[in-house]
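Is this the right way to post structure tokens for a design question? Let me know if I should format differently. Anyway, here goes:
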């Protein structure tokens, strides 16, 4: 009886074998498509997440940095559009050549404005934010309310235009300060020799403006308000781009960066 049952079982298996193998074959053939349907969904979700992060973290892509000016309404804050466009051109030039270590931030000093206006703009390009907008001094030899004369010569007490790369910090006679590397030959490359640094100064304040109509002047350094000194330096130190602009024809003609 047991032998008869085994024979019946064997016959049943043999009879259903083609159906089993057909089903197995169909399953194996569909297996890649099953995983293919799963995997792209995961990739798509990741891409969507990155796009969302990009939209929030970096609304201004590298190809869309020109939109930062209008998005942040920098014109209403007093920044010349020409100054901003030149700053971006130099920023791109320096970034392509590996000069900028921290490419997320750009600082622009707009000397087309009087010193009674907040003419220092520090912008977070990746997050599309204005981090600082405050007063900044020019050199005694450059003028009173407006900076109109510029020099790279030691003891001139004039400001130097052009592109700088921010460097390290130190404690000096003006307190917490930051060195600046002038990278335009013949225009600002003697910044280190001239001790042109960013520091705080008591004469960069609104009380000084009320008394004289303009802030005090430095010996050529871009001095900022004392209470803003440390947070500004901590934000832009060690390898960010600083651009000091004026509608000075000599500079605009001879800057290799702007004319590249």
């Amino acid at each position: 009886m047991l032998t008869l049952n085994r024979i019946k079982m064997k016959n049943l298996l043999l009879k259903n074998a083609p159906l089993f193998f057909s089903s197995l074959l169909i399953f194996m053939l569909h297996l890649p498509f099953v995983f293919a349907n799963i995997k792209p969904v995961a990739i798509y979700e990741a891409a969507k997440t990155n796009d969302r992060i990009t939209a929030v973290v970096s609304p201004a892509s590298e190809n869309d940095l020109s939109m930062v000016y209008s998005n942040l309404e920098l014109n209403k804050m007093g920044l010349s559009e020409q100054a901003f466009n030149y700053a971006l051109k130099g920023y791109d030039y320096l970034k392509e050549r590996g000069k900028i270590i921290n490419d997320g931030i750009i600082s622009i000093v707009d000397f087309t404005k009087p010193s009674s206006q907040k003419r220092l703009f520090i912008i977070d390009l990746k997050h599309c934010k204005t981090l600082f907008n405050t007063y900044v001094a020019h050199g005694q030899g450059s003028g009173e309310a407006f900076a109109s004369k510029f020099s790279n010569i030691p003891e001139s007490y004039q400001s130097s235009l052009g592109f700088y790369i921010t460097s390290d910090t130190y404690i000096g006679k003006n307190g917490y300060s930051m060195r600046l590397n002038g990278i335009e030959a013949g225009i600002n490359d003697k910044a280190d020799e001239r001790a042109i640094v960013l520091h705080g100064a008591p004469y960069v304040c609104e009380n000084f403006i009320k008394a004289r109509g303009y802030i005090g002047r430095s010996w050529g350094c871009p001095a900022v308000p004392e209470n803003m000194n440390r947070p500004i330096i901590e934000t832009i130190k060690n390898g960010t781009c600083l651009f000091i602009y004026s509608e000075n024809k000599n500079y605009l003609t001879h800057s290799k960066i702007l004319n590249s």
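Format looks fine. Someone answered above. Worth noting: Strands lie at 105-110, 120-124, 129-134, 162-172, 175-182, 197-201, 224-225, 241-245. The first strand starts at residue 105 and ends at 110.
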